[in-house]
Write a structure and sequence with these properties.
- The chain is an alpha+beta fold.
- The chain folds into 3 domains: about 10-115, no CATH class; about 120-245, Sandwich (Jelly Rolls); about 250-325, Phage tail protein beta-alpha-beta fold (3-Layer(bab) Sandwich), CATH 3.55.50.30.
- The protein is about 35% helix and about 30% strand.
- The protein has 8 helices and 18 strands.
- The strands form 3 sheets. Strands 1, 2, 3, 4, 5, 6, 7, 8, 9, 10, 11, 12 and 13 form a 13-stranded mixed beta sheet that branches. The chain has a 3-stranded mixed beta sheet with strand order 15-18-17.
- Mean pLDDT is about 80; it is low at about 55-65 and about 80-95.
Length: about 325
């Protein structure tokens, strides 16, 4: 197991300012993939940084210089700590607390003055839809979270899908591309509709209309997706898989139904397990070649859907403790 890396806020700021060495950049990219919390922290830094750059366009404030000031004041605080001669050992914690307070105060002043207020849009146990300031509409699946500025300013519209799944219907604006960061991926569009899922760092994108550009943040490789295309990005290797979308199962949380045509049984079972949290297992390999076509209402629940599968394919679903085995 790789030893956890320690990345400081100052180093993250330098990374955003393109002031790190190739080795430091490699370490930060590795740190981002080690833990979802690391990537979430990085996205928060990037979202604040990008928002402050956009804010500059309307106020004349130099956000780059402001970020440099935060670095400078942190360095000055560190230098002051080095010059202080300890009077008593037991007061060491006071110096540390004072330094932390100074740095935190600088950051607080910078964020409060320059950053556009961020909105945390979370869905919890219900599907939610929201309209952003540019007219774009976002639907969050259950237990998802999207961070976005209260108002889009500058020459781009930047949001962060922190976790979960969302469908985006983006208002067309060629002058201001819409950019989504999630996991190690950056998704760029102008005006289109598409589905994005971030599951344990794996980023899946399915395009309904328009063109979507997906970039891997590790090595900056890019894929272009058109209507009907789907891609999956591996968070460990950074590798893309691109293919034609196989079905419309991903629309279930918007349409409240499962619609499919000639879908292999293993694919349907995988979708049911993910949607309902069930543990359905295919008990005979012969069943892997079976296919189904139909429309199932989400309100029917997994028990009713399993009965439909049993009757349609002439098989049985046997419950064994926490498993349901198809035979």
């Amino acid at each position: 197991m790789n030893k956890p890396l320690h990345i400081t806020d100052d180093l993250l700021i330098s990374y955003l300012l393109n002031e790190v060495s190739a080795e430091q950049q490699r370490l930060i990219d590795e740190w981002r993939t080690q833990d979802a919390e690391n990537q979430r922290r990085f996205e928060q830094f990037r979202l604040i940084w990008e928002s402050s750059k956009n804010f500059k366009a309307d106020t004349g404030i130099d956000a780059h210089a402001s970020l440099q000031k935060v670095k400078q004041r942190a360095a000055e605080a560190k230098e002051q700590r080095a010059k202080v001669v300890p009077i008593r050992k037991r007061y060491a914690w006071l110096k540390i607390a004072a330094a932390v307070f100074l740095i935190a105060g600088c950051c607080w002043l910078w964020l409060g003055r320059f950053a556009n207020r961020q909105v945390q849009f979370e869905s919890q146990a219900v599907v939610k839809t929201d309209t952003l300031s540019d007219g774009s509409i976002v639907t969050l699946n259950k237990f998802a979270r999207l961070d976005y500025p209260q108002k889009f300013t500058g020459n781009q519209r930047l949001v962060a899908l922190v976790k979960g799944e969302a469908f985006f219907n983006i208002a067309h604006n060629k002058a201001k591309p819409f950019i989504i960061t999630t996991g190690i991926a950056t998704i760029k569009v102008v005006g289109t509709s598409f589905n994005v899922k971030n599951k344990n760092g794996w980023v899946e994108v399915i395009v309904e209309t328009g063109i979507v550009q997906v970039t891997n943040g590790l090595d900056k490789t890019t894929v272009i997706l058109k209507a009907g295309d789907e891609s999956s990005l591996n968070p460990k290797t950074g590798g893309f898989i691109k293919f034609r979308n196989r079905d419309n199962l991903y629309t279930y949380y918007r349409s409240n139904e499962l619609s499919f045509k000639n879908i292999p049984l293993p694919r349907l079972v995988a979708a049911l397990n993910e949607i309902y949290g069930t543990n359905i297992i295919i008990g005979r390999k012969e069943l892997n070649t079976m296919q189904m076509t139909g429309n199932l209402k989400m309100t029917d629940g997994p028990e009713t859907i399993l009965k439909v599968i049993e009757l349609t394919l002439n098989i049985t679903a046997e419950k064994q403790q926490d498993k349901i085995i198809l035979k």
